[in-house]
């Protein structure tokens, strides 16, 4: 604790508010990222299923999810733009010196963001206005655009973790930039695929959790069964894949960033036969209190042998490694992420075993209670993953090349705290509005379903004639909705009717 206080006293006064502001905006933005990256793919899977099977319910779900996707994207534009400005405003030392080296990643992300906005607009507008298969084909580039945006951001972040593609002149400035090497760094592959699969898993569990909650309230119609089954299956399929990728990225950190690995596992001295601590707190003298100690397991996990040597925090001077508090935060975040991933793996296995043996969904209420909580748990795991990545790199903003203290703005700390307070107020309003919009959409859709059911409508009839988002169907003479096909003819699946 005394070491932490001493280091804080040595840091510039702008450090704490700048870090706090960046951490808050990043933590808020990342809540939206899973839906932004993975919901387009899940929506198109449902859309394709509906077209192939002539399933009006599946098409209705895809249309409604596309409306949620559009609203989420609009909110993500706001929070993502704030983050982009903060890189220049809060960390001018980083962008001023290193922007030419790793800035391409941000450029790729910006272009992908623009492309995704256009594609979402076309996809949303195309319902009931385009032929069914044309509309579906025009939506196919959406997941690729989302993945391209993720690639840009992860390229920049992986460069900050393993900087490459430059040489330093006599004054320490980067020259002779090799853009390809700077983009494709050693950590890009492990980080990118770990992140993308995490987004698929998280989005799947978040969407499925909504329908799991509906089932627990007694809604067991086909609409809720299908709304649960498709996204949960996506998440369940990718959960074991994510477990393997998580192990791969941990080994990559062990090889490429050994000091960060030491923080993740709170290893003080370099040694073999290193024990694994489940949680536990690291103290400045190297002792660990609390948690569960498992002898030799850390060496075994790192190199498949208890003789594997694990680098400790003391392998580098104190000013070039995370302090005890930062290491403890990194360790707690890492263990929480792994713990949640393990529970989700068990939930996916439960689902898979029941489906394999009985060809039906699990019937236990405890399964659906767990599924309803899985979405929130996945978001927490994503947050913990970013905490482990960023806090474990301290005190470096560019690993072994620039410290955070050298990159921070010279703006007065009081002004930064004021900015922080204003951003919190704006984000409360933005996310509150997002929640209100989602709840109003849900209410409208439920009322529409109840009205149609009360009128004796069938699944083959045009649903959602009064949706608050996306194009509304034209109203024909006499006040009845015109055919979604635009040719006056009926049809549950024709011409993008859902």
Biggest sheet strand line-up: 1-2
- How would you describe the shape? globular
Instruction: Please provide the count of β strands.
Output: 8
The main sheet comes to: 2 strands, antiparallel
Total helical elements: 15
H/E topology pattern? HHHHHHEEHHHHEEEEHHHEEHH
End-to-end Cα distance: 60 Å
Strand pairing plus helix content: what structural class? mainly alpha
Mean pLDDT: 84
What percent of residues are in strands? under 5%
Which residues form runs of ≥5 with pLDDT under 50? 1-8, 458-498
The rounded Rg comes to 25 Å
Q: From the structure provided, what is the oligomeric state, counting identical versus distinct chains?
A: single chain
Helix content: 55-70%
Structure in words:
This protein is mainly alpha-helical and 498 residues long. It contains 15 helices and eight strands. It has helices at residues 2-10, 15-53, 56-90, 92-126, 132-139, 141-161, 179-183, 188-216, 222-256, 258-264, 297-303, 324-358, 365-391, 404-407, 413-454; strands spanning 167-168, 174-175, 276-278, 281-282, 288-289, 292-294, 396-398, 402-403. The strands form four sheets. The protein has a two-stranded antiparallel sheet with strand order 1-2. α2 runs antiparallel to α6. The longest helix has 42 residues, at 413-454. The model is unreliable at 1-8 and 458-498 (pLDDT under 50).
């Amino acid at each position: 604790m005394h070491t932490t206080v001493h280091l804080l006293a040595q840091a510039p006064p702008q450090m704490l508010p700048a870090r706090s502001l960046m951490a808050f905006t990043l933590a808020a933005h990342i809540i939206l990222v899973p839906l932004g990256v993975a919901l387009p793919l899940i929506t198109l899977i449902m859309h394709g299923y509906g077209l192939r099977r002539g399933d009006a319910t599946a098409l209705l779900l895809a249309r409604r999810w596309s409306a949620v996707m559009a609203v989420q994207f609009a909110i993500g534009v706001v929070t993502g733009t704030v983050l982009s400005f903060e890189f220049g405003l809060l960390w001018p030392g980083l962008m001023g010196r290193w922007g030419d080296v790793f800035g391409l990643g941000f450029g790729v992300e910006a272009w992908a963001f623009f492309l995704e906005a256009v594609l979402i607009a076309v996809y949303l507008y195309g319902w009931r206005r385009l032929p069914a298969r044309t509309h579906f084909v025009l939506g196919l580039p959406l997941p690729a655009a989302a993945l391209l945006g993720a690639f840009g951001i992860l390229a920049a972040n992986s460069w900050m973790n393993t900087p490459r593609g430059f040489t330093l002149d006599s004054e320490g400035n980067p020259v002779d930039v090799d853009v390809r090497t700077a983009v494709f760094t050693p950590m890009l592959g492990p980080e990118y695929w770990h992140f993308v699969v995490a987004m698929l898993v998280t989005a799947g569990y978040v969407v499925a959790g909504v329908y799991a909650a509906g089932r627990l309230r007694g809604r067991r119609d086909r609409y809720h069964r299908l709304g649960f089954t498709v996204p949960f299956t996506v998440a369940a399929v990718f959960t074991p894949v994510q477990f393997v990728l998580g192990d791969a990225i941990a080994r990559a950190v062990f090889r490429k960033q050994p000091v960060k690995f030491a923080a993740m596992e709170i290893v003080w001295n370099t040694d073999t036969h290193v024990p694994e601590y489940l949680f536990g707190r690291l103290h400045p003298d190297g002792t660990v209190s609390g948690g569960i100690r498992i002898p030799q397991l850390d060496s075994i996990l790192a190199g498949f042998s208890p003789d594997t040597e694990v680098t400790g925090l003391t392998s580098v001077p104190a000013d070039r490694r995370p302090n005890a508090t930062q290491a403890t935060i990194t360790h707690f975040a890492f263990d929480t992420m792994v713990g949640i991933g393990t529970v989700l793996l068990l939930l996916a296995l439960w689902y898979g075993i029941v489906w394999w043996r009985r060809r039906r969904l699990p019937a236990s209420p405890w399964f659906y209670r767990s599924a309803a909580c899985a979405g929130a748990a996945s978001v927490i795991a994503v947050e913990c993953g970013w905490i482990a990545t960023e806090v474990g790199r301290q005190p470096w903003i560019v690993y072994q090349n620039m410290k955070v203290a050298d990159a921070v703005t010279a703006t007065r700390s009081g002004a930064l705290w004021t900015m922080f307070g204003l951003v919190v107020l704006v984000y409360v309003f933005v996310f509150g509005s997002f929640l209100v919009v989602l709840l109003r959409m849900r209410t409208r859709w439920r009322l529409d379903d109840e009205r149609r059911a009360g009128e004796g409508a069938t699944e083959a009839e045009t649903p959602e004639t009064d949706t608050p988002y996306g194009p509304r169907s034209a109203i024909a003479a006499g006040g009845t909705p015109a055919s979604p096909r635009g040719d006056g003819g009926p049809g549950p699946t024709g011409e993008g009717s859902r």
